[in-house]
Model the fold of this input.
Amino acid sequence: MDLLINSDLIIPSSELLWRFTLTNGPDRQKINKNDSKVELIFCVGNSKFLTSQQKLKIRNDNNIRLIKECIIVFKRIDRNLEIAKKQFVKSQI
Done:
C-alpha cells in the first residue's frame, strides 16, 4: 500500500519499511506479549523516486527529524494492535 503524503507526493510501498516489535511491560523487566510497537520507516537517502532537490529539501526541513537518513513516519504502541493485525490479514484473504 502506497503512502499518500499530499496530492503531489506518494511514497511507493516498495520504499517503506514496516517494523513490528513487542515492547517492555509495565515493570520494564519482561516483554509484554500484549503490547506491540509498529513503526513505518522511509529512508530518504535510499529513495529511488525522490529527486536530489526533494531529498535536500527534506534534509534541510527543521520539522523533520532524520535518523541515519531515515524518517520514522509513524510509531505507535498499542495493546490491541495484535487484534488489528489479525483483522488486516483476514481482510486480505
The CA atoms of residues 2 and 30 lie 35 Å apart.
